[in-house]
Amino acid sequence: MFRAGARAAAGGADSGRTTGIAASNSDILAATISRAEEIRSMTPAPVKPMIERSLIDQIDVRVGTIETVSSIEGSQRLVRLDPQSPVPNGTRAA
User: Fold this and answer.
1) Is residue 21 part of a domain?
2) Which of 1, 46, 63, 94 fits a 20 to 30 Å CA distance from 77?
3) 43-75 pLDDT, tens per residue?
4) CA distance 83 to 63
């Protein structure tokens, strides 16, 4: 619970009463059990079929390590990700 910052109507002083939502342990437990039952009743998506190797060979997949992350001036959300130096000669892992 938290202390209300509102002033009492009579006299203008803080009433000292607490307001807000206070959940009892039994309420929290009931909500947790309800959520667990909801999750248990979910049906996972079926596994997708295997794809041919020739299709994988058509995809350009590059894996690397991010060396540095820097802020972009004028943006609050964007960052610049600087990857590790590329593999020499475009060597591919098989």
Assistant:
1) no
2) 63
3) 888 999 998 989 888 888 777 888 889 999 999
4) 10
